[in-house]
Amino acid sequence: MDASAFAFKKMNGLGNDFVVLDARVDALALSPDAVRVIADRKEGVGCDQLIALEPSTKADVFMRIWNADGGEVAACGNAARCVAALVAGEQGRQNVTIETEDQVLGAVVGGDGQVTIDMGVPRLAWDEIPLAEPFHDTRGIELQVGPIDDPLLHTPSVVNVGNPHCIFFVDDVAAHDLARFGPMLEHHPLFPERANISLAQVLAPDHLKVRTWERGAGLTRACGTAACASAVAAIRRELTGRKVTVSLPGGDLVVEWREADGHVLMTGPYALDFEGTLPAGLLEAAGV
Could you say which of 99, 160, 189, 202 would form a disulfide bridge with 62 (CB–CB 3.0 to 4.6 Å)? Predict the structure, then answer.
């Protein structure tokens, strides 16, 4: 089907925004160029990630995810909350399931506008993240920014919560130019699939402050998987308890790394900004 005939919903989770297309009835094949055109904030609709809803044999819906640069990725926690709210509204029930590229997520949509996503078990081994070389302890790996004898940042934790994350613990997340070194670290040879780069500040045993450079999207107001990864990293380093509030530029998420089964639960809001139809001719430049 011609993509320009597709209706879309513009949604966000704490300011991390998405264009959501429903491809469950009419299949939609999008090239990286087409994704970039739609995601462009000047010429297109504008978003951090593009989401396509597709049929699933394992869950209520399959969620396909592209970053603004056109690359397809396996996870987006904030988008999962938005999709869960849409599907729960359609089904008339609070509990729904979402299939992604590598797992099935459970979700509970509350009447208070909050959605809890079961993000599954984090992957902590070096080859699961993945890294380009072995590290025995991924709570702190050998990687630094700045002079060797006086680095600005060093010894980050690495975690995979559906996608690779690298987290530096700092005294003040505002004191570092993440926009400058984020792109360099995203493409560091140590990360064969690139990585999301975060700064995390411990405010209290149950409170983190996090800023993230998302691979393929840049600085965003919130990154759900980064919040989860930062919480897991802080817990592993015994900096916090197992349930924390994570303050992002766009607002707060609550993350719990459940001891009973090792699953990570993320709770936060969603919002529907507006609805529309992809403008005729929008994708002509991309050959769609």
Answer: 99
Read off the pLDDT of residues 78-106 as tens digits, 9 standing for 90 and up. 999 999 999 999 999 999 999 999 899 99
d(CA 26, CA 28): 6
Span 32-78, pLDDT tens digits: 999 999 999 998 999 999 999 999 999 999 999 999 999 999 999 99
How is domain 3-119+271-280 classified at the CATH fold level? Diaminopimelate Epimerase; Chain A, domain 1 (3.10.310)
CATH fit for domain 144-262, picks 3.40.50.1100, 2.30.110.10, 3.65.10.10, 3.10.310.10: 3.10.310.10
Residue 275: alpha-carbon gap to chain centroid = 22
CA–CA dist 219, 213 (Å, integer): 5
Asked if 79 and 51 count as a contact pair (C-beta separation under 8 A), the reply is yes
Of 210, 208, 102, the closest CA to residue 166 belongs to 210
Active site residues: 76, 223
Local confidence band at 1 (pLDDT 50, 70, 90 cut-offs): very low
Q: Kindly report whether the global pTM for this prediction surpasses the value 0.70.
A: yes
